[in-house]
Structures are given as C-alpha cells and as structure tokens.
Amino acid sequence: MDLGISTYTFPWAVGVPGYLPDTPKSWSDLMTFCTQNQVQRFQIGDNFPLHALSSSVLTEYIRQAEDRTIQLEVGTRRLEKVHLLNYLSIARQARSPFLRVVIDDTDYEPDEESVIEIIGEVLPHFRSENVMLSLENHDRFSSSSLLNIILETDPEWVGICLDTSNSLRAGEGVEQVLHTLLPFILNLHYKDIQIERVGHKMGFMVQGCEPGTGIISLDSLIQTLGKSDRCQSVTLEQWPPFVENLDHTIQQERDWALKGVHFLRHTLNFYSQHI
C-alpha cells in the first residue's frame, strides 16, 4: 500500500468556510510537501474542487504531479450522473485509478435505491475509461447498505474508500465497517480521533487528535487490510480542533501532518516486511 496525503490532511490551511486563511495552501505547496516527505499519492477532495479550474490550470497541475512522480487520486462530493461523468473525465486525465465519491451533498441525499440506479447508469463509462468508483463511508449509510450497493452494481468496478471515523454517525465503529467491507476497500482514510465524555456527563465529544494518539489502531487496520490485495493506498486525513486562532490552528495541523506521515510510513514499512 502506498502512503498518501489529501487536501483534507490540511483542511484549515486549504480553507474552511468562515475561516479562510490570508494565503490558502496552494497546489504547489501540497506538491512540495509530498516531495519533501516522500509521499507517493495525493488525493484531491471536494475542498479543492477540480471542476472549478480552467482546463489549462488543471493540465498544469497534473503535469506538476507527473514531473514529481506523484500518483493523483481524484475525489468529489455528490453522486449525481452529470457530476460523476464530469469527474470521470478529470480522473481519466489525471490517470487516477479510481474516483472517490462522497454520496451526499448539501440538500442532496439520495436513497439507497437511487444510488444503485445512478451507479448503474454511469458504470459503463467507468469501465470504458478503466477507472473504478470508490464510495466513501460518510455519515449516513451503514456498512450493510454500502455492501448492498456494491453487490447490486458491480463489485469489480465499485469499491470503498474506508474512512476510519465517518461511520460514527451511522452508529458503527471502524472495526464493524472494516469487517463488512474488507474485500472491497480500495483506499483507507486514516483519521485519528478522541472521544471524551462532556463535563455534565450527558453525551460525548468527538474530535481529531495527533495521529497515533487516539483510539484508531493503525496497526490493527494495516494487519487486516493485508488480508486483501485490493487496498492501494493509505491516506492521512485530519480533524484538527480550532485552537486560539487560525494561525495557531494551521501550525498545529502542519505539525500533526508531519508526525502523521512519519507514523504512517513507519507502520507501513514494518508490515510490508511482516505480512
């Protein structure tokens, strides 16, 4: 499995609505981070929308990645036919092995039957372009629902981008999601978190933490993923809490990213020799 980062490795530095930095992290900045830290893959999320770029800028960005031998992984949000076909074209141009998709969007939450229908309509295009469709477990759908979507479409061309923390909203921990969807996982989003009971004891607070210090066991994940040969990459993502001000938050985010990349590389190297 290759080591990767994402635009969601640096969510605050790339830009969060209402908290935009004076100088958001640029494509060049992200490419430089990959090169300096020997990161093999770079995944672009919906917080860096590629469809909003001109064709010339997109072509230049892809060239920069190719010059640095960085494998791009294209991602987006909104499982809708026209949007998917637009991003399929981008994924093909970027030589992305899959298109990572978050199903939902603002005011857009298709039901399971609609998702299956939409995927069925676009799959012939994905097959012809040799690009797989990778659905991210994101909040609403249970792992059993995602499994049904895969089995009702095409398990050879439809897979999973497994996020270690997103399924909490669906009432599922990462172990359950991993067990259910293991044969179909194409990419892992490693995102460490802490869960603490609030002061009045009525509820819990979930927030991101420095990679390797929370409840998500990377060792267990890598050992289990080693039983399947489909997972191509492990992507570091982060939920850094806001601290003091935006500058301090972005600095903490960068510190965690550096530590996280080192942690991921060390773990991947270890298990590559023992699995």
Automatic annotation (TrEMBL):
<keyword id="KW-0413">Isomerase</keyword>
<dbReference type="InterPro" id="IPR013022">
    <property type="entry name" value="Xyl_isomerase-like_TIM-brl"/>
</dbReference>
<protein>
    <submittedName>
        <fullName>Sugar phosphate isomerase/epimerase</fullName>
    </submittedName>
</protein>
<dbReference type="Pfam" id="PF01261">
    <property type="entry name" value="AP_endonuc_2"/>
</dbReference>
<dbReference type="InterPro" id="IPR036237">
    <property type="entry name" value="Xyl_isomerase-like_sf"/>
</dbReference>
<feature type="domain" description="Xylose isomerase-like TIM barrel">
    <location>
        <begin position="105"/>
        <end position="256"/>
    </location>
</feature>
<dbReference type="InterPro" id="IPR050312">
    <property type="entry name" value="IolE/XylAMocC-like"/>
</dbReference>
<dbReference type="GO" id="GO:0016853">
    <property type="term" value="F:isomerase activity"/>
</dbReference>
